[in-house]
Fold:
Amino acid sequence: MTKDSRQSVLGSVSEPDEITSLDDIDWTFKGVNTQKYTHGLHKYPARMVPQIVDNLLSYYLDEGVIEEGDLIYDPFSGSGTTSVEARLHGLNAEANDINPFAVMLSEAKATPLERNDLSDSRDFILQNLSSDLRDVREEYESEGEVSSLELPEVRDGWFPQPQLYELSLLRNRIDEVEDEYGIEYARFWRIVLSHTTRKVSYQRNGEFKRYRLSEEDREEHNPDLESIFTKKLKENYNLMLEYSDVVDHSLETTIHYSDSRSATEDVGEDVADIVITSPPYGDHKTTVAYGQFSQDPALLTGKVTYDEMRNVDKNGLGGKNEIVEPLSDLEEYSPALKETLETLREKEGRSDDALNFFSDYYAVMEEVAKIAKPSQPVAWVVANRTMSRVNIPTHLITVELCEHLGYEFDVNLPREIPNKTMPLSNAPENVTGDTGELMSNENIVILRAPETN
Structure:
């Protein structure tokens, strides 16, 4: 794909001739379409907007720092934003995530599908769907169950019935797609099932942690599963066609279901030409509960166990995993971290949680230093959260910890967050009505990978 055609396809915010440095770009991207192509397949919390990756890749391609066919790496795949943009820019991609649903979503979004098989597999799912769903509902109303359908491993009290049986019917039909058309097509349609699962469940709209509707609202909750599913199916079908028509199908995208703190075991060393990632802002339990968000959608696929999903938030950065770097040393690597921890200790705040998080984050930095080729760009998109009412200067800590590992600082690009799906306030001490500000700004911290691994 040439420079001019790439800009035409992506609809970049800035004209390419105007960009002489990364500082020339307006990184806020207010009002832009963040759902273009397969970026719009499914919601995901704290999703990195694709325009960040788009503009970084366009700039480095234009500057000759990377070229088409190179490899981009993302240690925190999430919803797959980096991998989708990689394909749109003619790049191969590898990524990690400890959330099996994120792995499935990233693969579904980044893998282009053939038009004929996509259409045929869609028709396969829809054939006699209305009558089969009607039979499920009638049997449930008559018998109080549907004996031919095995219910998924979801928690009791989170779904209306017979809708849960209807979801099981859809799951089985998509499993048949896998047998008939292949795993790529079944995976794509499971994303539609996931969307439907969240809409049908008692999950409160707009919440990413697991909060149920009130008992009164649950009594009134009787969603039309077929209309929800078929509407999203049509939307996602069209998004995939648009994406598949403009990308190179011969490129490779690999999403590892594994921990980025030991990523070299899967990815290898000295292989990535560029790294672009958006790490979690803190431990999953107190910031964004990716596992809670993904739990029911993942379980409805029938491919993931409840124990796997329950452990996602526990095993995230700052969770219960083994601490890789001695905590007493880490503080000395970053003056900003040391000052932050001292402030937290003075307030009797959550200094241990902060230190555990940055120890795990540092372990990822170590792995990325090995995976990236010497002196190639590494971009960390971070936000400065608060803990115990103390602002955590994550961008400064990121720079200092990376520099200790031999990275060379390049530039910091601050940006407001007009589009990101994140709460702007919370109750850090769990006092009702007592809220504190959360993230409304990000920093794109760009460094060069160490010259020697």
